[in-house]
Specification:
Length: 333
């Protein structure tokens, strides 16, 4: 084997904090009570919106932390005399690179959405509400997409495992469907806002999220490619010592390219692109690229042995066709 290939053997854990014991057991019910006390306490000490003076819009730090600490203490007191679910230690704490990148993904997506909403004169509150819709749609869609597209037989026999997102099993095509449904529901509940307008402001953030997520897959040695002798092949030592396509990096680069095209169109039309232009462009470029990248992946090789196209490619085709239809028939260039 040629030893000139790049060998990738990262530690997916950023750092580790060993388990440490608390001075006393902490009641879980007490924490729930404390959260309620914090909510109502902060409402009580918040400045009166009708009578507040300039500069008094925020809660003073002393009152803020007083409510937080006081609520946590008071929340525990009633449960000192009862046997309730509790914990007496914390850890080990081991944040992972993938989780950090996942968080960065949504933060970066939020900031680009904030810029676009501000350009359109929309308040931040509307973006915050949209973010909740998109987050929920992404998680539910990605999980159900994996369940029904890839392992339906297994999960139909083990329905109780479907909500266990933390065990792994998320599908990007399912996430796409979930995001589209989330945008549709948001637009229906937002007066004067069309679905296409919302979609155009969401897809640049989705491209950023895709780039971060696929980079996280690289750290986890996930979504690896078929063996190859190309000079940029990577040996994923956590899997085997065979040079393979870094398929997840192909998709990360694809997402960067999609983002660049979307921002070019956005700026060309002076922050007011024709409705549907960004959304349609996103669907065509991203899923066309996904279609061809699937040929380099190993994850669905068994499926491809029975059919020329794998599940990821079959799911990409409708998105590409919808995007072409939007750009040709619906967008008023």
């Amino acid at each position: 084997m040629d030893n000139n290939y790049f060998v990738w053997e990262p530690d997916p854990i950023l750092f580790s904090i060993q388990e440490f014991n608390l001075p006393f057991p902490v009641s879980i019910w007490g924490l729930i009570l404390a959260f309620g006390l914090i909510y109502f306490g902060l409402q009580k000490v918040a400045p009166d919106k009708k009578n507040k003076k300039k500069g008094d819009a925020e809660i003073p730090a002393l009152k803020f932390w007083g409510v937080i600490i006081g609520s946590l203490i008071v929340g525990q007191l009633p449960f000192l005399f009862f046997d309730t679910p509790s914990f007496s230690s914390i850890g080990p704490i081991e944040p992972r690179v993938y989780g950090l990148l996942f968080a960065f993904a949504f933060i970066a997506g939020y900031f680009i959405g904030f810029k676009m909403f501000r350009d359109a004169g929309k308040p931040q509150e509307e973006l915050d509400r949209l973010l909740i819709y998109v987050l929920i749609g992404t998680i539910i869609g990605a999980r159900l997409g994996h369940v029904f597209f890839y392992e339906a037989e297994f999960y139909l026999r083990n329905i109780h495992l479907i909500p266990q997102v933390w065990t792994g099993g998320l599908a990007s095509h399912g996430a796409a469907i979930g995001i589209i449904l989330a945008m549709y529901l948001y637009a229906r509940r937002s007066a004067g806002t069309s679905f296409m307008w919302v979609a155009d402001r969401v897809v640049p953030g989705v491209a950023i999220v895709g780039m971060f997520i696929r980079t996280g897959n690289f750290f986890n040695s996930e979504i690896i490619g078929l063996p190859t002798d190309l000079p940029w092949a990577v040996i994923f030592a956590n899997v085997d010592m065979v040079p393979r396509h870094p398929s997840m990096l192909y998709e990360a680069i694809l997402c960067i390219f999609v983002l660049a095209v979307l921002l070019f169109i956005y700026k060309k039309y002076k922050h007011a692109p024709p409705e549907g232009s960004l959304f349609g462009t996103f669907l065509v470029i991203l899923f066309t690229g996904r279609f061809f990248i699937e040929f380099s992946k190993v994850t669905l090789a068994d499926f491809r042995a029975e059919a020329f196209l794998d599940m990821g490619q079959l799911l990409s085709i409708p998105f590409v066709l919808i995007g072409l239809w939007l750009l040709w028939k619906k967008v008023k260039w």
